[in-house]
Amino acid sequence: MTWGDLHTGAADCLEILTTAGHRAYPVGGCIRDLLLGRAPGDVDLCTSAHPERVMALFPRAVPTGLRHGTVTVPTETGNVEITTFRREEGYSDSRHPDGVSFDVGLREDLSRRDFTVNAMALSGDGEVMDPFGGREDLEKRIIRCVGVPDRRFSEDALRMLRGVRFASQLGFTLEGETAAAMDRNAFRVEKVSRERIKGEMEKTLLSPRPGMVGLMVEAGLLDHLYPFPRGLDYFGLEALPPVREDRWRGFCVLTGFPISALPVERKLRRGVERPEEAVIPTLALKPRDLMELGLEGPAISEAQRKLAFHVLECPGDNTTEKLRKMLEVGTG
Fold this sequence. Notes:
The protein contains 16 helices and 11 strands.
């Protein structure tokens, strides 16, 4: 495994940084994915170069988080996020550090990260820098906090939702102390923006194991949004197509959760609250067919909605013959 396994834009950034005399490493999720044999998506780099130096080396860089040492470099093969080695101090909002300092090395930088599987870096000679056992945890298929879980979650409450999401996407389980700390710190999620909560829930719902969203509920991570019932079986969500509207609707029907409690776009909200609207245009019986059956005006709309709800439950019944028979029975 080498830097050459990353996309060319990331490899070029590493070469520029190291040629300029700075230490630089790909870090986090891209290393995890390479070790799992998955193609890395986004590539994050960490470096000894201070943010101002990174900006000088990359004229097209965007200061996306300069205060915290992060800049984003657009390349032809994808954006590359470059962050200076840093120490974080204070988390008064349970989300962001109150201050950072850049007088640290790679190991201390890795020590501030959320989970061991995301706290690995790759040297230029192919050595995996893994001071917290992330590689072993990949083999065990567990999500475990770096250091003390309560501290990690008090620093950034979003990490609890991310932990469940990683487990759902990777097919892993939560390590015992990490899961227990989620229960103890669940109240902190109230400080996380609803946009970020929605994002983590949606990624979980669209994962191969959407039922893991139940862990968020059972741990109390979503209690401030809605009084969720406990003990429900969420694993039936796996039978639904991995489509946003379908998975969200399944979750909302199961729990009674109002999708409007989250900031969702109008299309998704209507897809959840009015699912029949998306089915009506696909019905085998068109409005002209309904007119030929003697329906008119509001009766046509009512029939379409009735048929659409039926097709939602029984997709195989969306044929002219079956829908005609259903209407005949209903009006007979």
